[in-house]
Amino acid sequence: MIFEGVVTVVLLLLLNLSIIVILNDVLHSNPGIAGGVYMIKRSLVIGGRYIWSYQNLFIAILILIDCGVLYWRLIRRYHLYQMNHIIAELHYISEGHLEHRITFKLDYRLQRVVDSVNSLVDSATQSMNDERQAERSKDELITNVSHDIRTPLTSIIGYLGLIEDHQYQSEEDLVKYSHIAYLKATQMKSLVEDLFEYLKMRGAETDLAINQVNFSQMLEQLAASYELEASRKHLTISSTSDPDDIMMDADAEKLGRVFNNLISNALKYGEQATFISLNAKLVGDQVIVRVANDGREIPTAALNQLFERFYRVEESRSKETGGTGLGLAIAQSIVERHGGYIFAESDEKLTSFVIHLPVHQGVKLQPTELG
Q1: What element of type H or E holds 353?
Q2: Which InterPro entries did the record assign (predicted)?
């Protein structure tokens, strides 16, 4: 830019000198023009002095024009330099340095270009990361499903093989082997059904059958349907609602699946618990539901992983109770499809699954709205 400025100044000085020489020649060779200039000059006299001379005035005008031309040239060169810098940065990013961003500040017009480029790179990077994550999730899903199906399938084949080879000593052994194979087959069926439900809820093409639902009555019916099973485990189950009748837009069947999963989990894994409670409260345009029990505390490290596919707090205990590890992932998917969110809390006194649901569909709640 310094070289550009020096060259421009030299060229302007030469141009100015040429113009002054030409004008002097014109005035000397044309007495009429020179006389007119002299008469104008005499009319602008104050205190016996001329307040201007045409040479000085003309030189001042040339200097102003020169400054304008110099400024335009330097700004133009500076913008060209910035544009070349942006192009160099783009080449650097295009070589695979997707973590790089253009950080320097420019004028408004070029800054919009820089911001657009950075946004485009962010979007492309996010899309690539999402694609990689989707690929990893698909691989993990296949691996987990294969593992969870292989275990009961191996048992089924093993016990049916014993029956096929007549390796049993009594009819009692035959019934025992058949029963074990049946239980393992049922476990496989449950896994496949949960997996199908999970994939269906994660798919964008699945529509909810939205209707007006009396949410309070739904919770009461769910609590009543589990009373017998709860009493066998020496638990009490209850539901409360504030107000008594909460009406909301929802897919009753899908929401029923959510609470069935949560209650079943509380019955299976709520060791040393004495009660299960379902509490719903209308707060503004959302319903906050707590499914709680006073069983053993869930470790803090596990709380954020509860809703991951196939995650089990205790692998051995879950296998004994027949859990597929998909129940909470399905519950989360259904809640999110309704525009809400779900999370877990646990301490020494209470373990709660908290669900926020919008009263009207079309509204998506954010975790920041937690009261």
Answers
A1: strand 351-358
A2: HATPase_C_sf, HATPase_dom, His_kinase_dom, HisK_dim/P_dom, HisK_dim/P_sf, HssS/ArlS-like, Sig_transdc_His_kin-like_C
